[in-house]
Each structure stands twice: as C-alpha cells, then as structure tokens.
Design goal:
This protein is of the alpha+beta class. It has eleven helices and ten strands. It is 48% helix and 16% strand.
C-alpha cells in the first residue's frame, strides 16, 4: 500500500513546475545542446538544467509521493521534452530510483541511490539485448554471470540501453544458474564498452540509446542487487510503475502539442473562416480532448491500483497500450492541423510526434502487451 503524502500540496507543486518550465526550461528547447546530434541533451545542458531546478527546489519532486500524486507531477514535468531531465524524473533514472529504493541494501543506497536522487549522476538499465537475446521476451536473456570465488564475471551484449553514454552506473541483468540476477556496476568498469549509439527517431533522453559489450566484467558479491536468481521478480517491481510514468510524462507533452494546434486553428484563416470552424479540423481537436481525458483517467486508475499494493502487471499493460496509442493519435492530428508548420522545428509539435511514436515501442510494444493480456484471458477461462 502506497499512501498519499499529505505534507505536499500537489496543486501548488504542479503550479511551480509549470512556471519553472515556462521560464527556465522551454527557452532552451531550441538550444543546440538540447538534442546533441540526436542523442539527447548534452551532459553540459543537463547540469545547467539541474542547477536551475535545484535552485528552485524542484529536483526529483516525485520522490516520496504516491503513484497517483506522481501522475500529477510527471504530467506537469512532461510539458517540455527537457522537463523531466531538468527535474531528474526521466527514464531510466526514475525507474532505477524506484527499484533501488525497494531492493537495494543500505550500502547500495548510499553509494548509488543517494547521488542519483540528488541529480548528481545518471544511470542505465541493461536488460534488452540484440537478436538472439532478451527483448520483448525476457526469457531469451543471453548475457551470463558466473560465480568466481567471491566475485561474478559477466559476459554478453546489450542493445537500446537508454542513457548509457555518460551514465555513472548501470543495473545489469544477467542469466545465472537458476534464473536471472541484477548487478550494480560502474559504467567505466573494465570490460564495459559502449560500442555504438543509435541514431533514433526520438531525441529527448540524455545519453541516447546504445549497444554495450560486456567482456569479463568482474564485480564482487556486494554488487548483487537483492538476491541471486531473483532478477525477473525485481524487473516486475520496476517495469509496471515505469510503464506508467512514461505515460504520465508523454501525456504532458501531448497536451501541450494540442494547445499549440488549437491556438493555431483559432487564428489561422482558410476559405473565408477560421480553421477551427472547418469540421475536418474542429473534429480533430475535439477528438484530441476525448483522447487526452481518456488517457488521463487510465493513468490515474492504474496509479491507484499500484497504490493499493497490487502488482498492476495487467493494468499497466492496458494503460501502456491505451495511453501510448491515444497520445500518438493526438500528436498526429496536431501535425495535420498545423499543416506545413507541423513538420518543421518551428514548434515543439514535430518533436512531440517523434518522441511519442517511439514511446509506442519502448517498455514493450503494444502487440506484446496485448498478447500478454490475451494469455491472461485464456488462463482464466480455459481448463488446464
């Protein structure tokens, strides 16, 4: 059970975040450092943004809140592609904070969680692998860890590892004798090599998305996160809330894209009247309102399920599919309403479209979540 933090005035906090983004963050969205060649905000810009957030008392504002309270805070943070990075509540760090708070030892919390929560360092989560390894099917995990005295030796290859470039440490998922185990490792440890950083459709996450080679990476027993062979169980601790926080952040950006499109439609004339008065445009904006409200309610419902203490696996799958697809429809309509302007960098709508299109894939594509939900339906109704 996760209780609401009654000491925090959530509406006031949301208002502070909105004001902070308007004044301190949104003006930097067109700074060349904001995309860093397509690989996310540069480390220099991340430090500058977090210095500003720290001065405003807004670093990691989600910590200590219930999932439902977090929904309001992260929706506000998501209004700028730089917002969650500035406030230190972006992926993968936000999910890693949650996992470390739940599973890490006191020593690990001091060494890894404390500087991460303070926004002093970034982190990575090393689970996905190239062809032949774990992706949508975590059971295909190919990276191995073998015991060697009081140490473990890790070998394998990881792919699409968000934030790896510039991260201080990573949580590595590896196959062990009776399951999978999570290990904490400094990203500059011998044997960890960033082989390649993809050029991707999205560009808002610091460090981009990388291929990482793990060659005889040696860690001691103190690097084990939780217990040996329990990695898949811990992954569920992280993944259900992380799916939902993605929904929260991108909801904020979709809402802003809609506002930009609606403002444009209410001042742009075509064929003797405002664009909004043409049903083809006005109905798209109306559908945006419907999708935004349905997505908001889905997020809040799933957050309350998690706050009840339930695992929320099925509920987070439903939310991930419904919200990611609704937000994509919204941003697609916004591009269409803006016309030629919508495919330029003159507004944030073009980036919102790209970012949210990628969201339909990471943290599990819609098809995998639907397949998982269908398995649950069969399990409940077909006799064994």
């Amino acid at each position: 059970m996760t209780a609401a933090n009654t000491t925090v005035d959530i509406p006031a906090l949301v208002a502070r975040i909105h004001a902070f983004l308007e004044v301190e963050v949104m003006p930097l969205e067109r700074d060349p450092r904001a995309t860093h060649g397509g690989h996310g905000p540069s480390d220099e810009l991340v430090r500058e943004l977090r210095d500003r957030a720290r001065a405003a008392g807004l670093i990691a504002p989600h910590l200590g809140l219930s999932h439902r309270q977090t929904a309001d805070v992260l929706r506000a943070a998501g209004r700028s592609p730089l917002g969650a990075t500035a406030l230190n509540c972006m992926a993968p760090d936000e999910g890693n904070m949650h996992l470390l708070e739940k599973v890490a030892s006191p020593e690990q919390r001091e060494r890894f969680l404390k500087p991460l929560a303070a926004g002093e360092v970034r982190s990575a989560f090393l689970m996905t692998e190239p062809d032949g390894g774990a992706g949508s099917d975590p059971g295909m995990l190919a990276t191995t860890a073998r015991a060697d005295g009081n140490h473990w030796v890790i070998n394998g290859k990881k792919a699409f590892i968000t934030g790896a470039q510039g991260a201080a440490f990573g949580i590595i998922m590896a196959k062990t004798e009776h399951g999978a185990t999570m290990f904490l490792a400094d990203m500059d440890a011998p044997g960890i090599k960033i082989a390649y950083v993809y050029d991707t459709i999205d560009s808002s996450m610091p460090g981009g998305h990388a291929i990482i080679e793990l060659n005889d990476v040696r860690v001691d027993a103190g690097a084990i996160l939780g217990e040996v062979d329990q990695g898949f169980k811990y992954a569920q601790v992280r993944l259900a809330p992380a799916r939902l926080t993605h929904c929260m952040r991108w909801w904020g950006l979709a809402e802003r894209a809609h506002e930009i499109a609606a403002d444009y439609a209410c001042r742009r004339l075509a064929f003797g009247k405002l664009l909004v008065d043409h049903e083809g445009v006005g109905f798209m904006l109306a559908d945006n309102l419907i999708d935004l409200k349905q997505a908001e309610l889905m997020i809040d419902w799933c957050a309350e399920v998690l706050d009840s203490g339930a695992r929320g696996t099925a509920e987070s799958s439903m939310a991930k599919v419904a919200v990611s697809e609704a937000l994509f429809r919204i941003t697609d309509r916004c591009v269409q309403v803006l016309g030629g302007l919508g495919v330029t960098h003159e507004t944030i709508v073009e980036q919102a479209f790209r970012e949210i299109r990628a969201f339909r894939i990471y943290d599990g594509p819609s098809e995998v979540h639907r397949w998982s939900l269908a398995k649950g339906i069969k399990r409940e109704r077909v006799p064994k």
